[in-house]
Amino acid sequence: MTPVDIAKMTPREKLDLIGELWDSLTDADVALTKAQEAELARRMATFDADTESAIPWVDVKRERVERTR
Q1: Do the beta carbons of residue 14 and residue 6 sit within 8 Å?
Q2: Which has the least CB within 10 A, 3, 6, 59, 65?
Q3: pLDDT tens digits, residue range 12-56?
Q4: CA nearest 18: which of 58, 10, 59?
Q5: Which are the contacts of 69, defined by CB distance < 8 A and separation ≥ 6?
Q6: What is the pTM of this model?
Q7: How far is CA 56 from CA 15, 20, 44, 61, in A?
């Protein structure tokens, strides 16, 4: 795919391509830095133990996709 091909794509097609590219990466491809790992650990420690109020990632992602349509 050339830059010209991408320029002809609709915004929806570009978003779909971004999603496909992201999904093709492995955890090793997007490894966190030590600083990011520390920040993630700090944030995880602040979560309430009440998981009833948490929203599953699949629901958040689905809602976001629906908003962009």
Answers
A1: yes
A2: 3
A3: 999 999 999 999 999 889 899 999 999 999 888 887 666 677 788
A4: 10
A5: 12
A6: 0.47
A7: 22, 21, 15, 9
